[in-house]
Amino acid sequence: MNIKEIITHPEGRRLEFKEVLPEHADLAKTIIAFANDAGGELYIGIKDAPREVVGLPEEELPAIEEQISNIIFNRCYPAILPEITFLTEGDKHLIRVTVFRGSTPPYHLKEKGKRQGTYIRVGSTNRVADEEIIAELERRKRNISFDSERVMDKPAATLEIKMFAVEYQDKTGDKLDEATLRKLELTKEVQGVEYPTNALVLFSDDELRQSMFHFAKVECARFKGTGSEEFIDQKSILSNISTQAEEAYNFVLRHINKGATVEGVYTVSRWEYPVKAIREAIRNAIVHRDYSLTGKDVKVAVYDDMIEITSPGLLPPSIDYSAMESRQSDARNKIIAPVFKRLGIIDQWGNGLKLIADELRDYPQIDFRWREIGLSFQVQFVKLDFEAKQELGQELGQELGQELGQELGQESATRTMYSFILEKLAVEPLSRQELMIAFGLKKVSGYLNRTIKKLLSQHLIEQTIPESPTHPAQKLRLTMRGKMFLELLG
Asked: How do 193-196 and 218-223 pair as beta strands?
C-alpha cells in the first residue's frame, strides 16, 4: 500500500503514527509491544488527529534514524532488529520503523526488567503485561501451549472423565484408554505416574476443573432490543469444553427466526442468519480461547439486530480475518485443537474461516464484523436491514391501525380463526389441508376458505407459488403486514 492508503487506516494492533520522534521510553514501549505480538509498523512524520502527512526535515533523517536505532539497542531486551526506511510522499519525508514478530519473547525495557517492563499491544495502546501474559509469552518462546502443561494436583487415573470417554468413543470409535490419552498428550508421565494436562482437566467433569477453571464456561444471553439492559433469556453453560459449543449453538437457534423461501416449485426453510457460520464462530471461540486468562468466559449474545460472540484472548498473530477466503490455521491450544478435530467439532486445517466466508455470500443482508476489545476477540453477525425494517414496521403499524382497526379490535377482544391462522403461519408455511388438520376439521370448511380469502385480500398472508394458484405444492405464508398485525395484537 502507498502512504495515501495507509493513512486511511486506524491505529491498532500493528499500526501507529507519530508526528515527531516519540520520547525515548514511549518509542521503546511501542517497539517492545510490537515484537511481543504480531509485529507492526510505526510511521514518524504523520499527524494522527487530524490524520495528515506533515513530514520530517530531510537533512535530519539520518540523525533521527541513528537515534531510533540507539534507543532500541539501549532500552530493549532481548535485542530487537527493526527495519528502518525513509519514505517520500510528495515533498514530505517520513520514516517507517518495521518491527517483526519476535522469536525470543518476552521483550522488555532493560531498566525495568521483565516483570515490570514487558509491554503488549492492546488495540492502539501499549500496556504493561501481567504475570499471565508474561507466562504465555514464555511458553511461546519455548513453543509450548498452556493446555499442554501438566497438572500435578492428582494422577490422571483418579480424574473423572467418564462422560468425555463415552463421547470420544462414540465420535471416533476408539477407546480413550491410557495409551490413547498419552498419545493425544492429554496425560504426561512424571516418575512413573501419569498426570493430566490442562487440556484433560478442561475435558473432564472432575471437581478439579471447577476449582482450576471455574471461568471456562459460556455465558449465553438473549437481550430485548439492541442493548444489554434487559434479558429475555440467559444460560450459563458449565459443562466440559467438548459439549459447550453445541449447547451454545442450540441456545442461538432457539432465539432466531426461521422463515421460508420458494425455489422453483419447492418451499425451502431458511434461517434469518447464516447458522453454519455462527456455529463455526462459536466453535472457534471455544477451541481457540486463551484458557490461561483467569476470570474471563466466552460470551454469546443475541440482540434484535445482531449475534455477538466474544472469546478471551487476542487473535493469534498469524491469523488475518480480513483474508477469510484463504485457509489459515494457527491453533493456540495445541492439545485441545487436535482432539476437537478427532471429535469432528472443528477442521484442523484452517477451513473454518473459509466456511464462514462461503456461507456469508448467501446472506448479503448480514454484515460480518470482527474486532479486538481489550484482551478479547469478538465477531458480530449484523442485520444490515434492521433499521430499515424497523422504520417500515412503524409505517405498517400506522397503516394497519387505520385500515384494519375493526379486525384488531375484534381479535383483541376475542380471538377467532382469523388471528389463529396468522399465528400458525408465523411458525411455518402451511397448505389449506394442513391448516384444516391443525384446526381439527374433517374437511376444508367454507368458513376456513372465506377467512383465508379475506386474509389474502388484506395482504396479511400470501401464496408461496403465486404464479400457479392451484399448484399441488401450494402453501400459505405470513407477510410483513401479517407479522405486524400479530405484533399489534400483542
From this structure: unpaired
- Listing DSSP states for 98-144 in one string gives EEPPPSSPPPEETTTHHHHHBEEEETTEEEE--HHHHHHHHHHHTT-
The four Cα atoms 323, 325, 328, 331 give a dihedral, to 10 degrees, of 90
Q: How confident is the model at residue 383 (pLDDT cuts 50, 70, 90)?
A: very high
C-alpha cell at 251: 441456545
Angle, nearest 10°, between helix axes 417-427 and 446-457? 70
Residues 6+ away with beta carbon under 8 Å from 64: 21, 44, 56, 95
Q: How does residue 189 score in pLDDT terms, banded at 50, 70 and 90?
A: very high
Tell me if 293 sits within 8 A of 214, measured CB to CB. no
Element (H, E) at 386: helix 386-403
What DSSP string runs through 238-285? -S-HHHHHHHHHHHHHHTS-EEEEEETTEEEEEESS-HHHHHHHHHHH
Question: Which residue ranges does the chain devote to CATH 1.10.10.10?
Answer: 387-489
What is residue 318's predicted lDDT score, i.e. its pLDDT? 59
Q: Distance (Å, rounded) from C-alpha 337 to C-alpha 342?
A: 9
Homologous superfamily (CATH) for 3-141:
Schlafen, AAA domain (3.30.950.30)
DSSP notation for 192-214: TEEEEBHHHHHHS-SHHHHHH-T
| Res. 41 pLDDT band, cuts 50 70 90 | very high
Say if residues 81 and 53 touch (Cβ distance below 8 Å).
no
Give the separation between CA 75 and CA 219, rounded to whole angstroms.
Answer: 43
Q: Which fold has domain 387-489?
A: Arc Repressor Mutant, subunit A (1.10.10)
Domain with CATH 3.30.565.60 in the chain: 218-384
CA 135 to chain centre: 25
List the end-to-end C-alpha distance of the chain, in Å, as a whole number. 55
250: nearest Cα among 224, 277, 227, 275: 275
What's the pLDDT at 483? 84
**Which grid coordinates are listed for 276?**
453454519
Domain with CATH 3.30.950.30 in the chain: 3-141
CA 383 vs. chain centroid, Å, equals 15
Q: Looking up cell 398472508, which residue turns up?
A: 461
pLDDT digits (tens, 9 = 90+) for 204-221: 999 999 999 999 999 999
Architecture of the domain made up of 218-384: 2-Layer Sandwich (3.30)
Q: Which three cell numbers stand for residue 351?
A: 477451513
